[in-house]
Amino acid sequence: MTGLETTAPALDARSIAPEGAVGPVPRTYHVRTLGCQMNVHDSEHMAGLLERAGYLRVEDVPAAAARATPAGDGGADVVIINTCSVRENAATRLFGNLGQLAAVKRERPGMQIAVAGCLAQQMGEGIVERAPWVDVVFGTHNLDVLPALLERARHNEAAAVELEESLKVFPSTLPTRRESAYAAWVSIAVGCNNTCTFCIVPSLRGKQRDRRPGEVLAEVEAVAAQGAIEVTLLGQNVNSYGVGFGDRGAFAGLLRAAGAVEGIERVRFTSPHPAAFTDDVIEAMASTPAVMPSLHMPLQSGSDRILRAMRRSYRSERFLGILDRVRAAMPEAAITTDIIVGFPGETEEDFAATLEVVEKARFASAFTFEYSPRPGTPAADLEPVPVEVVKDRYRRLDELVRRITHEENAAQEGRIVEVLVAEGEGRRDSATARVSGRAADNRLVHLALPAGLAADDYDGGAPRPGDMVTVRVTHGAPHNLIADSALCGRALSPEELAANNSRAAGDRVWYDEGPALFEVRRTRAGDAWERRRAEACATPESDAAPVSIGMPTIRIGAPDRGGMSALGQPRSI
């Protein structure tokens, strides 16, 4: 290890100006993120570090973005692939991507390729051995050295590989370029103390380390001051939060405190573990208006025998009991889950138990996976279930999950919901004259604009990303909700009705018999999104714009808590 420091002056990220250009040309970057929300947030830190070092996002440099290729390089000078190693095909996918980028690099002088994340932590030098055109490899424990590694690789004209065995710098203290102006990830812990036999995450991200409550709340207050109205608290096992500093009730307290931060309207969290999920968390969710009625509760298997083999320290009865108590406290709650099919030793009886639990649980949606052996995990050495059996079980589970999801979505028809409008949630919005976002329960909602209102006519009343819209759900689709209430309230002619019914389901307007409803509430978050858009369209200054820090000091004017957080913990900023 080199002991590279991140407190040094920003690196010079300027490249040689092309012929005819005036002045140096900023080097550009593009981050491709694979995997979980932790990886998404890590990528935001990478972007923040690079911008502090003088790099620019390739999307903000049209001349660079114009040279993008199908290889996924974005046209950038520096391409970072932030990898995941949870699935068996992760390495195959990575080296396929790297092979495509090699051809781009040969045609783009000065281009650098970096590999980060869990697979980088796992494979290390092996990545460079298989793909010698890679310039930088760094792991989950040393995000802070990315700019220095890029500079070292360029100076030495050799690959720079750096992997710390444990966390040296807590990621939330690093600069952050948040992808969203209206919603923010806030990490409360990194690592995991569980020993699930199928999971490689603890060996790659280490033991759980908790941030102090004061630090978490300082970040929540800071993102609120910048315009965000939604925060998601992140951790591998959020409801074990506080064990590291001796407060087993800390997570419930943190939920209440985050929900009380001025300007924050929505608080979410992911992911909890059924074994550590306690009733005080349910009470905090139900009694704190800003904490949303949505819960992702990983089941993994409905068979107690398989749960035991997985070292999941709960059983199906406890799992279903948690769901019952959550719904008793919050009848409107939407609960999602993860399920693994074909864990070694799974019998047809075990699988039937999973189907039974899924039927009883009535999940709003489920992420289903075929078991994938990961080298270095205890389950990897067990006798696998035959592939054809796994695939058949996966198909049957998927059919059940799809049916229940559709039924649960159909049950939402007629509900009045407030939707936080988002960017990129609706791929067909432009074709269907809709905008998209998330309801309080985190269901995806596509909502029709009033007739004649263009999606980008913000002065005319169109909601901006970050604004709230109150609508009525007019159709529960298989994977989402459709709220076309803006177009309701009038009788259709037979010709109009026939023309509408002839369209594909996704293109059809879903009328109901209620009145028109489309109420836009402008928010600070929408203002923040509009400011960011205006800044992106402005001519870049010679120096990079300031980048927010993940763990900032409390803003001037914040309520004085006498040096204590809302949880009664000292602030250690």
List the helices and strands and how they pair.
Elements lengths: L13 E2 L9 E2 L1 E6 L3 H16 L3 E2 L4 H4 L12 E6 L6 H18 L4 E6 H6 L1 H6 L5 E3 L7 H11 L3 E3 L12 E2 L6 E5 L1 E2 L10 H5 L3 E2 L2 H13 L4 E5 L15 H10 L6 E5 L8 H9 L6 E3 L7 H6 L6 H14 L4 E8 L6 H14 L3 E6 L16 H24 L5 E6 L7 H4 L1 E5 L5 E5 L19 E5 L2 E2 L4 E3 L10 H8 L17 E3 L2 H14 L10 E2 L24
Parallel strand pairs: 3-4, 3-5, 5-6, 6-7, 7-8, 10-13, 13-14, 15-16, 16-17, 20-23
Antiparallel strand pairs: 1-2, 9-25, 11-12, 18-19, 18-21, 19-20, 21-24, 22-23
Describe the structure.
With 573 residues, the chain is an alpha/beta fold. It has 3 domains: 135 residues, Rossmann fold, CATH 3.40.50.12160; 241 residues, Alpha-Beta Horseshoe (pyruvate-formate lyase- activating enzyme); 113 residues, OB fold (Dihydrolipoamide Acetyltransferase, E2P), CATH 2.40.50. 32% of the residues lie in helices and 17% in strands. It contains 17 helices and 25 strands. The strands form 7 sheets. It has a 7-stranded mixed sheet with strand order 22-23-20-19-18-21-24. Strands 4-3-5-6-7-8 form a 6-stranded parallel sheet, sandwiched between helices. Strand 22 and strand 23 form a beta hairpin. Helix 13 runs parallel beside helix 14. The longest helix has 24 residues. It is globular and about 70 Å long. The N terminus and C terminus are likely disordered. Pfam families: Radical_SAM, UPF0004. One of its GO terms (cellular component) is cytosol. Its EC number is 2.8.4.3. This is tRNA-2-methylthio-N(6)-dimethylallyladenosine synthase. Catalyzes the methylthiolation of N6-(dimethylallyl)adenosine (i(6)A), leading to the formation of 2-methylthio-N6-(dimethylallyl)adenosine (ms(2)i(6)A) at position 37 in tRNAs that read codons beginning with uridine.
